[in-house]
Design brief:
17% strand, 8-stranded mixed sheet, single chain, 288 residues, globular, 8 strands, alpha/beta, Rossmann fold, 12 helices
């Protein structure tokens, strides 16, 4: 069991770190403010730091809870032979956290891999879910483009890029964010993944896009059955060309949704447009 030895800058990340001893390892999370519960789930290769500005904007009106999945951020890295780092495993641990905190009337905030993981949580705990605030997500069997990406990342070259070169942090994160992240912000993404032994979670989820196909196929059906009528806000980054074709499918799942287009935001939309995301959540779930 390992964990990064990193203390966030209190100016950038002015939150008290809290920890939950899950069945597989110690999970780091923040729990700020009071009011309706916002459960913010991150994707690749991020952690709760991704939501820092949204939390700052909303903690006066909401209880903002943002965990780091095991293998990410300040959470522990369990031995990969005992914890699979699969989406199903992450769903189970987040459900443990929900029960531990006895969260109810949850508004689930998710993007990227937090699409399927968040939907897995929401379908498992659907009586506790009040609504959904979705960014650029997916929660179905991979498209050919996603399948090929996952297959490449499972090759020796792909694994080398992920484990030795920290590819997601060093290349994808800055390339999929429209504004230029500061050196200090990049430091906060690098340090939790500062060595290959801290990157196994990132590497495994890249493979799981393809390997989790049966689970993802079933998940889409559960989402349609259990969540389609939940109040849903979609805040979609219109500059995310990789995820652009997915928007209509998400809209079709939730016929009563409200769509807010983030015209200038790329994939990591809470880095590009946190104020607009916060305003949309406040207006949709709080204001009459």
């Amino acid at each position: 069991m390992s964990a990064p030895q990193f203390t966030p800058n209190p100016v950038l990340y002015p939150f008290e770190s809290k920890y939950f001893q899950s069945s597989a390892g110690r999970m780091h999370y923040v729990d700020e403010g009071s009011g309706p519960v916002l459960l913010m789930l991150h994707g690749q290769p991020a952690w709760s730091f991704l939501y820092r500005d949204v939390i700052k904007a909303l903690r006066s009106d909401f209880r903002c809870i943002a965990p780091d999945m095991l293998g990410y951020g300040l959470s522990e890295r369990p031995d990969r032979y005992h914890y699979g780092y699969t989406p199903q495993a992450h769903v189970g641990i987040i459900c443990e956290l929900i029960k531990h905190l006895d969260l109810r009337d949850i508004i689930l905030v998710s993007h990227d891999w937090a699409g399927p993981i968040g939907m897995g949580v929401a379908t498992a705990e659907h009586p506790r879910i009040r609504g959904l605030a979705l960014g650029n997500v997916w929660y179905w069997s991979p498209t050919p483009k996603f399948w090929l990406f996952s297959a490449f990342m499972a090759t020796p070259i792909g694994r080398w890029l992920l484990l030795q070169k920290n590819f997601f942090v060093e290349r994808m994160l800055p390339n999929w964010t429209n504004r230029t992240l500061s050196d200090e912000e990049m430091h906060h993404y690098r340090e939790p993944q500062s060595s290959p032994k801290l990157r196994w979670g990132v590497a495994e989820l890249a493979r799981q896009i393809r390997l989790a196909k049966p689970w993802l196929t079933e998940l889409e059906l559960r989402v349609q059955t259990l969540l389609a009528n939940k109040p849903t806000l979609i805040t979609w980054p219109m500059q995310d060309r990789t995820f652009a074709p997915l928007l209509k499918r998400v809209q079709k799942t939730f016929p009563g949704h409200k769509l807010v287009k983030l015209e200038t935001a790329n994939h990591y939309y809470t880095e590009d447009a946190p104020e607009k995301v916060a305003d949309a959540i406040r207006q949709h779930f709080l204001e009459p």
